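Q: Structure for this?
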Amino acid sequence: MIEKEKFNESELIKYIKKAGLETQIFNKNLIVESIGDDCAVIEDKNKILLSSDNITENIHFSLDLYDFDEIGGKSLLVNLSDIAAMGGIPRLFLMSLFIPPYLCTSDIKSLIKGVIKEAKKYEVSLIGGNISSASELSVSITIIGDCESAGIKRFCSKKGDAVYVSGEIGNSWMVFYLNSNKDYIFKTKTGLKSSDKKLITDFINKYKLPKPRINLGRKLYTKNLAGSLTDISDGIYKDIFNVAGEGCGCRINVEDIPVNEELKQIAGILNIENYIDDIISFGEDYELLWTFDRGYTRSEIAELKGSCGTNIKKIGFIDDNSAKLTLIKGGKVFMPEDHTFRHL
Amino acid sequence: MIEKEKFNESELIKYIKKAGLETQIFNKNLIVESIGDDCAVIEDKNKILLSSDNITENIHFSLDLYDFDEIGGKSLLVNLSDIAAMGGIPRLFLMSLFIPPYLCTSDIKSLIKGVIKEAKKYEVSLIGGNISSASELSVSITIIGDCESAGIKRFCSKKGDAVYVSGEIGNSWMVFYLNSNKDYIFKTKTGLKSSDKKLITDFINKYKLPKPRINLGRKLYTKNLAGSLTDISDGIYKDIFNVAGEGCGCRINVEDIPVNEELKQIAGILNIENYIDDIISFGEDYELLWTFDRGYTRSEIAELKGSCGTNIKKIGFIDDNSAKLTLIKGGKVFMPEDHTFRHL
C-alpha cells in the first residue's frame, strides 16, 4: 500500500491539465470548474447522459498491436460510442489512468496525446480524473453527454420491427484474428504475395480503432427514426437482446450482415471458412444496432447514410420468439459455432 | 484480447442492478434512467460536482487487511470525501469493477454489498458502471454530487488565514504500520500483554475505513466558514499546498496536529519514535483541511463540531513564504524525516 509512484505524479497532472485545457474550448458553457480541484463542476439544463467504460491491457488491447496514442484514442472512442447509442451529444469526460511500472513518462504522454487527439476531433472536453499505479495498463473513462430527453432506450422493440446496423460488422474481429496469427501469416506461411501482405497490414491499421457513430445516433434521435438503439460492443449475437423488447426475439438474415470487401478477400487468401460465426459473436465493432417499426423509405436511408458517412443495412426483424435469435443462411436456419479463438 | 470472463457477467449485472435499485430511493428526482442502458440519464438544475477515484490492490489496500465488503466500502468512501472537500452533497455514482481471476462470485458480491451498505448510509445512488476482467482487483468510482454554486475551491487562502483540520490525523498511517508489521507484533515480539494486543487489533478494525466529512464540508459551505478547502488524501505535508493561495506558504505547529490517544499509546508500547514525521506525509486520512480568514469564535467551533460529530483543530496559519511549509515543534523549526516505510 501507498507504494511510491513509479512516475512523477505532479508533472503528469500538470501535463494532463494543460492537455485538458486545450479541449475545454468546446462546451465552455457547461464547464464551471475543471481539472485541479477535488471535483470538476459542471452545469447542464438538458438531460445528462453518463457512462463509464474502461480498456485494459490483454483484455481489450495488446501492446504488440496498439501504440500508446492508439490505446488512449481507443479508450475515449469506446466511451463516445455509448453516447451515440443513446442519440446524445458527447460533451465532457473524466479519465482515470492505471499506470504499470514498465511505462515510462513518454509512453504515458503519448497515450494522453492519443486521448486528446480524439477529444478534439469529437469536440469533447477533459475535465478531471485521476492517476494511480497498477500492475497493468488500464484507462477508465466516464463520459458525460447530453440530450433534450432521456434519448433512445434499449429493450423497446416489438414484433415486426425492422432491425438495422451501421457500417460493417467484423472488422474488429479480423484485426484481432490477424494480429493473433501474425507470426504464422508473416513468417511461417509461404506463398503469400507481397500485395496480400500489404492488404493485411493496411487492413489492421485501418480498422484498429472504432468509429463511434455519434452523428448517426443523433440523426436517429432528432428524426425519430429508431424505436430501440444500442451499440455493438459484445457482438450482434448478444447485443441483439439489448434492443429486443419483452417477449421478443429476432430473426436475422446472416447474408445481409454488411461485411467489408477486403475482409472477405483476406479470408479467401488465408482460407478462413465460416468467419461469419466469429463476426456475429466477437463484438468490439461499436457500430450501432437499432430497430424501427417499419422499413425506411429511400429518402430516409439517404438522409441517415449522409449523416453517418457510412452504410446502413436492414439485417432482419423482431419476432415473438422470446429471447431467441434465429439466424437464416441460404433460406435455412443456421447455427453458428464458437471458434473465436481458433488459430491458423 | 476478448478473454472469456472468469465470472458470469450477466448474473453479476443483474445482481448489481438489483443492488443499485435499492439505493435509488435516494435522489429519485435526479435519476431519469439508471443501470441497464448504454448510459445512465440524470437531470440536475444545481451545479454538478464530478470526481473519479479508484482503489487498487497492493496500492490502496491489501487483501490480508481488508475483507471484500470493506474494499467495496472504502472505494465509495474515498470518493464521497471529494464531494465533502467541495462542500457539496453526494448524490449518485458509477462503479467500474476490475475483477481478477482469483476472485469468486461470492467475493464480488460481498464487495458490492460493502459498496451498497455505505451508499445507503450516505444516501447516494448507484446508477451505472461496468465490469471487466483484470489481473488485479480495482474499483473505480465516479461520484456525482451537487451544490448551489461551484463549492469551496482549493488554492484560495491568503497570508494570515487560519488553517484547520477535522478529526484526527495519522490513524490510517498507524493501521498501515500495524498491518505491515503484524507478524513481528503478534508472533515475534515477546512481552506484549494481551490487553496491548487487543488495543492494537481494535485500533486496526476501528480505523480501517475513512469517514468522509460530508456534513462538515456542507456546514463550511452553507455558513461561509472556509476560504479554501480540500481533503487529506496525500498527507498534510503535500495537501497543504492545495489550500495555499498563490505566493503563499504555511506555518504549522506540529504539536497542534490532532493525534488519536490510542495511537499515542500504541506508539509507546511499540517504541515508535517520531511518528509525527510519518503521520504528516502518509495521507489516506480523508479528513478535511481548510483555511479561514480569521480564527473561529467559540460558537462557530461548537456549531462545526456538532455537525461533523468530531473535533476540529486550528493547526497553523498561511504565510507569504511561497510554496514552503514551515513546521514548528517546541517553538523551533522542525524537519521531518521520510521513514514511512520503516519496519520494526
